[in-house]
Write a structure and sequence with these properties.
- By secondary structure, the protein is an alpha+beta fold.
- Among the domains are: 36-133, Aldehyde oxidase/xanthine dehydrogenase, a/b hammerhead (Aldehyde Oxidoreductase, domain 3); 289-462 and 579-734, Aldehyde oxidase/xanthine dehydrogenase, molybdopterin binding domain (Aldehyde Oxidoreductase, domain 4).
- It contains 17 helices and 27 strands.
- The strands form 7 sheets. It has a 7-stranded mixed β-sheet with strand order 3-5-1-12-9-10-11, sandwiched between helices. A 5-stranded mixed β-sheet has the order 7-15-14-13-8.
- α9 runs parallel beside α10 (363-381), α13 packs parallel to α14 (537-557) and α15 packs across α16 (702-714).
- The longest helix has 21 residues, at 537-557.
- It is globular, with a radius of gyration of 26 Å.
- It binds dioxothiomolybdenum(VI) ion.
- Residues 216, 248, 251, 357-359, 361, 533-534 line the site of dioxothiomolybdenum(VI) ion.
């Protein structure tokens, strides 16, 4: 048996060559003989009842094969958590309320034709008549009893209201020497993955309705298709080829159900490719939030109380809003001991585009608030921001706002210290940590500054949601193990999951990496692994692979040939939060991260250049350091876009800039000159080899770190994202900074 280590080494990605040479197939690259093309007709209205849907002109167009409407969907409902969205909106379906469109991304009809051009033309020929309904697009307005009601069984449009009632906030304010109040607003964010939605539906050689698509969880896509089409799982197969990025944006369905419907009814291959404009218009976004908060602390820096009210704009359907806002609820107080807390968080329906999963899952919004409040408190108390954090961070014995301790393995103190020290801008001293003064450029229109922020984020599903992952390990050979086949469904969305699966399997079995072959991304070949989300895949799949390998090795010893074992890993249970007090155990593991940002602000134009980011991230155990660095650099740049550039303009429920020419994401000219990754390894006992997750961590504190750096440079606090040049200039001028003449 080989003895060299297979984990903690930077092997090249197993999918690298094909992706670099272009040989790898993505969903839009598949073609089949006799295939037809699909085009979706979306809603034209933000909120309206469809009174008439006439497909006759469209059907008469030569080359049109079939048009599907609401009446064709057996169980006309969709939703990852709540079945609140019709698959197709319009008359003729049993689903109550399916004749109403509630946002512009509702799908109204599906055209299948001989060519994509004919399908597109026919989609426009479908006549839809609407009776407009009143709209509401602000979550605070939406919870008013007079607001239009989007879903009859959801009073006041409140999908979910979370509470925290811990200690006695009212009397705690008396103990506070300093109170900082703030109103924070964040915007929508578009996932901007490289590959727009696409797929191919067909009947496979065993008669299964098969959908080739990109997503984050093959078995969940299968389940949603089966629910809507009222079919048993063995009739439906979902396969992912390469996935061109996801970031949470592929958790919900886009083309899956309608492709399966068309392939099923027509028994011919059917293909669809969304344009970039369709992708931006018709998949969900990161939640915009508005937060009203106040934090009180004693002169010595000890936080005594936090109050916050958080409104999250969930858009017209839940998607994962109830869970996302749960995370915002936990993270809006940061990784700190808060003895007295009163938090109310609302996930609210509006007629905007649905909001859902996006890297950090509500956490970044919470962290922007918590960390900016901490930095403002530090200024008001005249205590260094690192020092203030270290005086308040949680440890294993602390009670979090949910009135229970965090899971074992709390490393936030070490993470902050390491980040501060590695940045070169902080030093510990007898009087505590102290930040150095940053040198200013000679150009008087430029100001430099540094800022720090930190965060925690759950690994795996929260709030009692069932959490598990399956893997199968097959050991082939006679006297020695000649090859290992691993079956694990977990999605490779570009993060390197499959490479670390192979590394972990090789390590667990004790063979060289080259002997391991991975079967994945196919419901017909694997059992469910859960989604590639919540920073969970290395942790969950690692535990499953490790468990299956141990069982297979035992069978090998018992002379089974091949030795095959299947194992389901289940982490410690989590719970929902008490509806009145918020008490509970929402998570089984956390990751911890801290970031320092160095920026240069042009005080004439408001343009903020990010010079350097230092990211310290406790990953538990690094399986592949280079892949972790890739995640850090990607997360930092994506977070930089969120913080400074990415402004989705949404007016009355309509996205006005669904193009990369007007929705600006960072390019190579914008990215930081340097991103320094500090990979810390404080293992957790339940992690495979000590692994925690890490994929969302680098995104979490970047916006508040940049906001703090802008303040350090200019003296101005900005509490609204994105901090575009326009926003920065207005804030500067309001303080009399950068006045010309
Ligand atoms: Mo991710 S936001 O947990 O898909």
């Amino acid at each position: 048996m080989a003895t060299e280590s297979r984990i903690g080494v930077d092997i090249p990605r197993i999918d690298a060559v094909g992706k670099v040479t272009g040989e790898t197939f993505y969903p839009s690259d598949f073609d089949m003989d006799g295939q037809l093309w699909m085009k979706i007709r979306f809603s034209d209205r933000v909120h309206a009842r469809i009174t008439r849907l006439d497909t006759s002109k469209a059907s008469a167009l030569p080359g049109v094969v079939r048009i599907f409407t609401a009446a064709d969907v057996p169980v006309n409902e969709y939703g990852l958590v709540i079945y609140d969205q019709p698959v197709l909106c319009g008359p003729g379906s049993d689903k109550v309320g399916a004749d109403i469109v509630r946002c512009l991304m509702d799908q109204v009809a599906v055209v299948v034709a001989e060519t994509p051009e004919i399908a597109a033309q026919a989609a426009q020929l479908i006549e839809v008549e609407y009776e407009d309904l009143p709209i509401v697009t602000d979550p605070e307005a939406a919870i008013s009893p007079d607001a239009p009601q989007l879903h009859p069984d959801t009073p006041n449009n409140i999908i979910k209201h979370y509470r925290i009632r811990k200690g006695d906030v009212e009397s705690a304010w008396q103990e506070a020497d300093v109170i900082i109040e703030g109103v924070y607003e964040t915007g929508h964010q578009e996932h901007a993955y490289l590959q727009p939605e696409a797929g191919l539906g067909y009947i496979d050689e065993q008669g299964r309705i098969t959908v080739v698509v990109a997503g984050q969880w093959v078995h969940e896509d299968q389940e949603q298709i089966c629910h809507a089409l009222n079919l048993p799982p063995e009739r439906v197969r979902v396969i992912y080829p390469a996935v061109g990025g996801a970031f949470g944006g592929r958790e919900d369905m886009s083309v899956q159900i309608v492709l399966a419907l068309a392939a099923w009814k027509l028994e011919r291959p059917v293909k669809i490719i969304w344009s970039r404009e369709e992708s931006i218009l018709y998949h969900h976004k990161r939640h915009p939030v508005r937060v009203y908060t106040r934090w009180g602390a004693k002169r010595n820096g000890e936080i005594v109380a936090v109050e916050a009210t958080v409104y999250g704009d969930g858009g017209a359907y839940n998607y994962t809003s109830n869970k996302v806002m749960g995370n915002a609820h936990l993270m809006v107080t940061g990784p700190y001991v808060i003895p007295n807390a009163k938090i109310d968080t609302y996930a609210v329906y509006t007629n905007n585009i649905p909001a859902g999963a996006f890297r950090g899952f509500g956490g970044p919004q919470g962290a922007f608030v918590a960390e900016t409040q901490m930095n403002r408190l530090a200024e008001a108390l005249n205590i260094d921001p690192v020092e203030l954090r270290l005086r308040n961070v949680i440890d294993e014995n602390s009670l979090m706002t949910v009135s229970t301790p965090p899971p074992p393995g709390v490393s936030i103190r070490e993470v902050i210290e390491s980040c501060a020290l590695s940045s070169g801008h902080w030093q510990p001293s007898a009087n505590g940590w102290q930040m150095s003064i940053i040198e200013q450029p000679s150009d008087p229109t430029k100001r430099r500054g540094i800022g720090i922020a930190c965060a925690f984020k759950n690994i795996g599903y929260s709030f009692g949601f069932p959490e598990q992952s399956w893997a199968t390990v097959e050991l082939h050979g006679t006297t020695e193990i000649e090859s290992v086949v691993v079956r694990a469904a977990g999605a490779e969305v570009g993060q390197g999951a499959h490479t670390v699966f192979v590394q972990m399997a090789a390590e667990a079995v004790g063979v060289p990496i080259e002997k391991v072959r991975l079967l994945t991304h196919d419901t017909a070949e694997t059992r469910t692994s859960g989604s590639s989300s919540a920073s969970r895949m290395t942790f969950m799949a690692g535990n499953a692979i490790k468990g299956a390998a141990a069982l297979a090795l035992q069978k090998w010893k018992d002379e089974d040939r091949p030795a095959i074992a299947t194992y389901q890993y289940r982490p410690p249970r989590t719970t929902t939060l008490d509806p009145e007090t918020g008490k509970g155990t929402p998570n089984f593991a956390y990751g911890y991260v801290a970031e320092v940002a160095e920026v240069e602000v042009d005080i004439e134009t408001g343009l903020v250049e990010v010079l350097r980011v230092i990211c310290a991230n406790d990953v538990g155990k690094a399986i592949n350091r280079r892949l972790i660095e890739g995640q850090v650099e990607g997360g930092v740049v994506q977070g930089q876009g969120y913080a400074l550039m990415e402004k989705l303009v949404v007016k009355d429920g309509r996205i006005l800039n669904p193009y990369f020419s007007t929705y600006l994401i960072p390019t190579v000219y914008d990215v930081p000159h340097e991103v320094k990754s500090i990979i810390l390894e404080y293992p957790i006992e339940i992690g495979p080899w000590g692994v925690r997750g890490m994929a969302e961590m680098p995104f979490m504190p970047i916006a508040p770190a940049i906001a703090a750096a802008i303040h350090n440079a200019t003296g101005v606090w900005i509490t609204k994202l994105p901090m575009t040049p326009e926003v920065v200039v207005q804030a500067l001028r309001a303080q009399g900074v950068g006045e010309i003449g």
